[in-house]
Design brief:
Blueprint lengths: L20 H10 L14 H17 L1 H4 L11 E11 L15 E2 L4 E11 L5 E9 L5 H7 L1 H4 L5 E3 L9 H4 L2 E2 L7 H22 L2 H4 L9 H16 L14
Parallel strand pairs: 1-5, 5-6
Antiparallel strand pairs: 1-3, 2-3, 3-4
Helix pairs in contact: 1-2, 2-9
Length: 250
Amino acid sequence: MLTTTIPDAQLNPSKEKPEHMLTALFFLRVYPTEDQKVSPLNLDPKTSRKWQWIFVKKIAALKDLKIVWPNDWGQAVFIMSVDGTHCCINEPRDPVMRKHKKWYSHKNSGPGVNYEVALHLWENRVVHTFFSGPAGESNDITAYRQMLKARIPAGKMIIADHGYRSKFEDEREKIRVSSSLDTDAVREFKNSAKTRQESFNDRLKRFNVLSLKFRHGFNNHPVCFDAVLVLCQYEMEGNYRFSCPLFFDV
């Protein structure tokens, strides 16, 4: 934050101290209720809320630096795995219906939102994310069609679960899901890629702000998701002491 050229992520040392970032990390990791809240800096609640949102937004702004689509995918045919992950929210009020099916998440059996996340198969990095909105309006294949489909280079393929099955030939050419026709080697390869993807999704949900029901408004959820995504990307990178890369044993 002291060196980035991204304006929204820059730290002003005269006003914003690095230790104030602890309030944001505490908020994202613990996501306490008001009666549970204990500031890591012993700040009063109002001051703590101020710093937590300042730094959540700064961390999220680093997404432009950390989540980057590669310019060159190399010679590999299979280039990424992709999956959707649902997060619980308090259902927004509807002027007509008390409960609207567009918010219903079949994964969480309640209101939620859906995010698409794609991982590079051969490097420890996220290459694509997409917030597709209410979980009941956009399943995995619908979210794929909105953005990722147009980005997949010709001749390249991605690995996904059965939520990405399609009846269209042009989509089946790019998306590979498990099939009874797979050889043992291909089945193992696909399963390893999907397990690796699920492992990353689990890392996201270790942050309670994404695993517990979100109470801070529909519009604030994508900001928190991006902040957690950036933190998990830093964790994957193998250039510091506490890094934790993802496995891929094929």
